[in-house]
């Protein structure tokens, strides 16, 4: 999401095995399952009752499962509406002829606060079975979104052959094309892990440091529990989401606000989001196997003190964007560039296909954030890298030398990254401060980096490595793992995929004019039978 000083004053009208801890020496970060939070007791769930009588394929079910209400026939499905607030537990099973409906804002639980003792707070769990289809009513796209509140969890665990699909109503009725976007809000997961943009005068990363999730007016996130667990999102598609409510106040495909390292985000595709694919506001959640296709803004946007790792990211932007600053990844901070905890971003095995000419680069790094990029391929019609900085007595914030007192690891580091853009770098001047092309070149071409500043023919058939990308020596990403963790794995190749024989992106994704992932992936404009 594009903004420089936006997060200091958010107007905020609104889960595999990999848990990627804070990078580059970050403290207080753990792998999933290393910590379990204690939350207030939950209401006794409503006893389950039998699901509707089995229905022939392509025929709407006769009735809805317990815990949902009948929303009528939508295409060849019976719409079964989720309650506006999920209490205790609710399990959505795959039932022939049933599609579950998000109508307006749907909350999972009631916020328990950063300390876990907020008055009226109550945890809840939403469990979604493989193959379940969930659609947004889309009568008003701004109002249709799902919020997992602090202390609650959503366990959406699909499989390679039965992904869980979140989409818009129009997808059920044949009303979408490869250009459709922004038809509903998206998914928000809020947690109690540290953030840096407090809405009160308290220390960043403290239990009382919280803020409101962008795109909502009341969903709070933040706290002091790095290992917080907001659930699991695995083998999931999120289609046609993202809504711009007002400038710098948007809903993304998937928003993570202060979620901790116990949260699992693994094998997730966001397709045709009108804003970011995934945006992360602080916290310690880590991600792997991400497919971002057709995002209108940033594919992956990280902000306000997030510390973690991402491995295996394939991002293919939308060619013609309505936004002028859409990046493959944007790494940012809030208004105070030295606010702590400082963002520490590590990205390994990524392929960025930046097709839009509306933005000046594929990668934007700013806000004093620390960053490490390894084993990457970046191609695009403009520049590959843009670094923006403020200035203080120590120098230009995003590229100044390491400073222990400021918890600053120093300039960004690149290892085994190949650029194939029209220009390797793009300058931006903000408040009379410019990180020059020469400064960026010195950082990228630092000794031992094994980077390629300018290459051609790096990709074939859309996103498979070609040319120099097939012979590049990969950096051993596992050497970046914090002690006692195994958050990154070693690969023998650069980029998100090793080549045509790689399979991690097949079957659970959907195809479009952005990318074809093979015959086992269906079209994004249709639904699995």
From TrEMBL:
Residues 58-67 have a biased composition (Low complexity). The keyword Transit peptide does not apply. Residues 42-57 have a biased composition (Pro residues). Residues 34-67 are annotated as: Disordered. Keywords: Signal. Residues 1-21 form the signal peptide. It comes from the Bacteria. This is Lipoprotein. It comes from Sphingomonas carotinifaciens.
């Amino acid at each position: 999401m594009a903004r420089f000083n936006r997060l200091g004053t958010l107007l905020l009208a609104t889960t595999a095995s990999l848990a990627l801890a804070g990078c580059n020496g970050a403290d207080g970060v753990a792998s999933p399952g290393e910590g379990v939070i204690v939350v207030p007791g939950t209401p006794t769930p409503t006893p389950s009752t039998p699901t509707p009588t089995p229905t022939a394929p392509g025929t709407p079910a006769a009735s809805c499962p317990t815990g949902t209400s009948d929303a009528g026939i939508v295409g060849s499905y019976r719409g079964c509406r989720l309650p506006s607030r999920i209490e205790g537990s609710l399990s959505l099973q795959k039932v022939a002829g049933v599609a579950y409906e998000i109508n307006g804002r749907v909350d999972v639980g009631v916020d328990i606060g950063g300390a876990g003792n907020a008055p009226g707070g109550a945890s809840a769990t939403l469990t979604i079975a493989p193959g379940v289809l969930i659609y947004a009513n889309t009568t008003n796209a701004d109002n249709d979104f799902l919020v997992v509140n602090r202390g609650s969890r959503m366990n959406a665990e699909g499989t390679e052959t039965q992904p869980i699909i979140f989409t818009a109503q129009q997808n059920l009725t044949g009303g979408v094309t490869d250009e459709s976007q922004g038809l509903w809000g998206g998914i928000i997961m809020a947690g109690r892990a540290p953030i840096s943009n407090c809405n009160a005068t308290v220390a960043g990363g403290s239990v009382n440091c919280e803020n409101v999730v962008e795109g909502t007016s009341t969903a709070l996130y933040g706290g002091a529990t790095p290992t917080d667990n907001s659930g699991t999102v695995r083998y999931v598609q999120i289609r046609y989401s993202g809504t711009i409510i007002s400038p710098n106040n948007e809903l993304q495909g998937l928003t993570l606000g202060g979620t901790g390292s116990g949260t699992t985000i693994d094998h997730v595709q966001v397709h045709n989001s009108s804003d970011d694919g995934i945006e992360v506001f602080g916290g310690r959640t880590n991600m792997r196997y991400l497919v971002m296709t057709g995002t209108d803004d940033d594919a992956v946007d990280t902000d306000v003190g997030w510390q973690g790792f991402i491995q295996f990211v394939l991002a293919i932007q939308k060619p013609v964007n309505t936004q002028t600053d859409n990046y493959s990844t944007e790494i940012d901070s809030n208004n105070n560039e030295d606010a702590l905890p400082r963002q520490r971003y590590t990205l390994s095995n990524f392929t960025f296909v930046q097709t839009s000419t509306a933005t000046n680069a594929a990668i934007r790094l700013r806000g004093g954030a620390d960053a490490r990029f390894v084993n990457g391929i970046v191609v695009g019609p403009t520049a590959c890298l843009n670094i923006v900085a403020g200035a203080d007595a120590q120098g230009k914030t995003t590229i100044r030398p390491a400073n222990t007192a400021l918890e600053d690891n120093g300039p960004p580091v690149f290892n085994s990254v190949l650029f194939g853009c029209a220009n390797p770098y793009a300058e931006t001047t903000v408040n009379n401060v410019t990180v020059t092309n020469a400064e960026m070149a010195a950082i990228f071409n630092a000794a031992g980096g094994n980077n390629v500043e300018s290459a051609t023919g790096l990709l074939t058939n859309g996103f498979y490595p070609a040319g120099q990308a097939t012979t590049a020596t990969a950096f051993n990403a596992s050497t970046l793992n914090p002690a006692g963790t195994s958050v990154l794995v070693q690969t023998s190749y650069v980029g998100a995929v090793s080549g045509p024989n790689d399979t991690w992106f097949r079957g659970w994704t959907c195809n479009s004019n952005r990318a074809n992932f093979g015959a086992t992936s269906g079209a994004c404009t249709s639904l699995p039978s």
